[in-house]
Design brief:
The complex is a heterodimer of chains A (262) and B (253). Chain A is α/β, with parallel strands linked by helices and 262 residues long. Chain A is built from seven helices and seven strands, in the order E-H-E-H-E-H-E-H-E-H-E-H-H-E. With 253 residues, chain B is of the alpha/beta class. Chain B has a single domain, classed as NAD(P)-binding Rossmann-like Domain (Rossmann fold, 3-Layer(aba) Sandwich). Helices cover 44% and strands 15% of the residues of chain B. Chain B has seven helices and seven strands. In chain B, strand 5, helix 5 and strand 6 form a beta-alpha-beta unit. The radius of gyration of chain B is 17 Å and the shape is globular.
Chain lengths: 262, 253
């Protein structure tokens, strides 16, 4: 256990996908990996960009946590298989899979190119099937554990991002199906629906005007930070939630309670 | 008891705290550093919960609160604020699952259940939210049920209705008090051990429902308490108006 943590994940091993960050602004996956490590978890960091990954790796090392990394593409089956093997070979078992990888996808069904649609589905949905396909048997044989999928409130409050909305809706259905299928193996599966989080991904090209619009879409008048997602993931990853499976946990400052302009 | 300080410096009121989930919630919140006001109408068992917390090094006191009485709510909250300087967390846990009335569509049974489960939460939430607004924020956790999501023959019809009321009332209050930093969320337990106040006769059918729960067992009070702790703490500072289901996967299927 490293500094500041209280050991909520002591003895556990996690794979966190999309654990890198593009720059100094923290990402959801990065924040989650950092928090898991701080709470005593050994973390295999996965991302397609080595440079982004190394930022997270350095931060965990600096705070005294235990991590290693794998550069790979989670929409590629062989990479998913290798990633899980690496985690088990390095740390002896696997308890937590955190599926954070995702890309945006805008436009209506009339506008979107079929190829772009397939890409969004591959990265946002097929990837979670593939990582889970290899991780779940290992989690089960490690005595049980948990899978956490990142969906979005876009799944329940669509607006102009149809490929993204549909992919994130599929993540909710996938979560429930996996939860029911693998409960007997003591594998819990839940998803988080983030609202307006100012992160490594969402901050790209975001104007101050748009950022303010996102803030005021919440009745609390605030945006979220990747730490808000990380804290929700920590609850779902830890044994504190051992009777929780198949749920969609909304972390959005109340945005989805209404559906105002955003 | 581990003292990790996840609620250090916070003052919390828990209702229906003498037994079961309320007692587990009180003990957990206290173990994380909160000053807990253990509220109930059953003083003897409430004092036992308090003694247990004190003996573990936590901070707690008992207060009588009939949740259907607006006057009692006002006095509990006023006393808490004047004694401890604020109120940061309210857990509206008190509730009943059935009544002694045989006909479960009897109007007096409906009124009894709605009065405790729905009006009780309404009174507590509105009184606490105003205090929290004045002090710059707080967290209210209302205990609903999976029966606030789905129908079924097992639950009392008024129980379903009352838990549905808690669920949607909490969202309305989350919107109303969001601008003041007051968060309002619901927790939805699945099949738990029967309440001490329950006189539901059919333990046989209950077993069937438990068998249909994907994780194949009833929940434990501590498992609900951990969900309450998450929502009560600053770890959930961007979480409001949401539903935390703790049910072994029952309603996912």
């Amino acid at each position: 256990m490293s500094s500041n943590g209280i050991g909520r994940l002591t003895g556990k091993v996690a794979v966190v996908t999309g654990a890198g960050s593009r720059g100094e602004i923290i990402g959801n996956g990065q924040a989650t990996a950092l928090l898991f490590a701080r709470e005593g978890c050994k973390v295999l960091l996965v991302d397609s960009e080595e440079e982004n990954l190394s930022r997270t790796f350095r931060k965990i090392s600096d705070q005294g946590g235990e991590a290693s990394f794998y550069v790979g593409d989670v929409s590629n089956e062989l990479d998913c298989q290798k990633m899980v093997e690496l985690a088990v070979n390095t740390y002896g078992h696997l308890n937590i899979l955190h599926n954070n990888v995702g890309v945006g996808g805008s436009g209506t069904v009339v506008e979107v190119e079929a190829k772009q649609w397939d890409h969004v589905m591959d990265v946002n949905v097929k990837s979670m099937m593939l990582t889970s396909k290899y991780a779940i048997p290992e989690i089960a044989s490690s005595g049980g554990g948990t899978v956490i999928n990142i969906s979005s409130i876009s799944a329940i409050r669509p607006r102009g991002l149809t490929p993204y909305t549909v992919s994130k809706g599929a993540v909710i259905a996938l979560t429930k199906a996996m939860a029911v299928d693998h409960a007997a193996d003591k594998v819990r599966v839940n998803c988080i629906l983030p609202g307006p989080i100012f992160s490594s991904m969402t901050s790209v090209n975001m104007t101050e005007e748009v950022r303010e619009l996102r803030r005021i879409s919440s009745p609390m008048g605030i945006e979220g930070s990747p730490m808000d997602i990380a804290n929700a993931a920590l609850y779902l990853a830890s044994d504190e939630s051992r009777w929780v499976t198949g749920i969609s946990l909304i972390v959005d400052g109340g945005v989805s309670l209404m559906s105002p302009q955003r | 008891m581990t003292l990790n300080g996840r609620l250090e410096g916070k003052v919390a009121i828990v209702t229906g705290a003498s037994n079961g989930m309320g007692a587990a919630e009180s003990k957990l919140l206290a173990s994380e550093g909160a000053q807990v006001i253990v509220c109930d109408i059953q003083g003897d068992s409430g004092e036992e919960v308090v003694s247990e917390i004190l003996s573990e090094g936590g901070k707690a006191e008992y207060a009588h609160c009939d949740v259907t009485s607006e006057m009692e709510w006002k006095s509990v909250i006023e006393d808490t604020v004047s004694k401890y300087g604020g109120l940061h967390v309210l857990v509206n846990n008190a509730g009943i699952s059935s009544t002694s009335v045989e006909d479960n569509l009897a109007t007096d049974a409906w009124e009894n259940i709605m009065n405790i489960n729905a009006t009780g939460v309404f009174l507590g939430t509105k009184t606490a939210a105003e205090v929290m607004k004045g002090q710059g924020g707080g967290s209210i956790v209302n205990i609903s049920s999976i029966m606030g999501f789905v129908g079924g023959e097992y639950g009392h019809p008024a129980y379903h209705a009352s838990k549905g009321a808690v669920r949607i009332f909490s969202k309305a209050m989350a919107v109303k008090y969001g601008p003041y930093g007051v968060r309002v969320n619901t927790v939805h337990p699945g099949f738990m051990p029967p309440m001490t106040t329950s006189n539901h006769p059919s333990s046989g059918s209950r077993d069937q429902y438990v068998a249909q729960t994907p994780l194949r067992r009833t929940g434990e009070a501590i498992e609900v308490a951990y969900g309450v702790l998450f929502l009560a703490s600053d770890e959930a500072s961007f979480v409001t108006g949401t539903e935390l289901v703790i049910d072994g996967g029952y309603i996912a299927q």
